[in-house]
Amino acid sequence: MNESKTLKIQASDKCMQAVNDFVHSMLPAGCDEMLLNQIDLAVEEIFVNIAHYSGSAEAVVSCDYHISGDGSGTLTLVFKDSGKPFNPLDKADPDLSLSAEERRIGGLGIFLTKKFMDSVEYEYVDGMNCLTIKKTLLHG
């Protein structure tokens, strides 16, 4: 089984709830609370960065949920914007051995996104930043 949807939305903080609602609409009923929190954090990190830094007026969020024959489910989210090319995966991970005061500002959200998701990939295609995250939700 495969279900896919796409949302075109203004790249603005005020649209964050609509993006979360869109992603949640694709998740299976009874999704594990910890997984849901991890997905929410990743979605918020990526969308807020697009809204604040991309310079793009619009974002496109594509969501695909695939259930394989063994009952495992994979959620794939693709975030696209036409802002200036920026690969957040090129940024060095924060040094967590330093205190919060000693660490450089920024980078913690994408670090957590990489830790929580099964995969995070970036590419710049046809004038668009494309950040793809995947997470396995069910185990058969």
What does this structure look like?
The chain has 140 residues and is an alpha+beta fold. The longest helix has 22 residues, at 33-54. The chain has a five-stranded antiparallel β-sheet with strand order 1-2-3-5-4. It has helices at residues 16-24, 33-54, 108-116, and strands at residues 2-10, 58-67, 73-81, 119-125, 128-138. β2 and β3 form a beta hairpin. The model has no long low-confidence stretch (mean pLDDT 88). α1 runs antiparallel to α2 (33-54) and α2 runs antiparallel to α3 (108-116). It contains three helices and five strands; from the N terminus they run βααββαββ.
Give the topology.
Layout: E1 2-10, H1 16-24, H2 33-54, E2 58-67, E3 73-81, H3 108-116, E4 119-125, E5 128-138
Antiparallel strand pairs: 1-2, 2-3, 3-5, 4-5
Helix pairs in contact: 1-2, 2-3
Figure out the total of helices.
3
What is the architecture at the second tier of CATH?
Answer: 2-Layer Sandwich
Shape descriptor reads: globular
CATH class: Alpha Beta
* Helix-strand category: alpha+beta
Oligomeric organization of the protein chains: single chain
Number of domains: 1
Task: Point out poorly predicted stretches.
Answer: none
CA radius of gyration? 15 Å
Which strand order spans the largest sheet, edge to edge or round the barrel?
1-2-3-5-4
- What is the CATH superfamily? Histidine kinase-like ATPase, C-terminal domain
**H-E string:** EHHEEHEE
User: Mean pLDDT, rounded to whole units?
Assistant: 88
Summarize the structure.
The chain is an alpha+beta fold and 140 residues long. It is 29% helix and 33% strand.
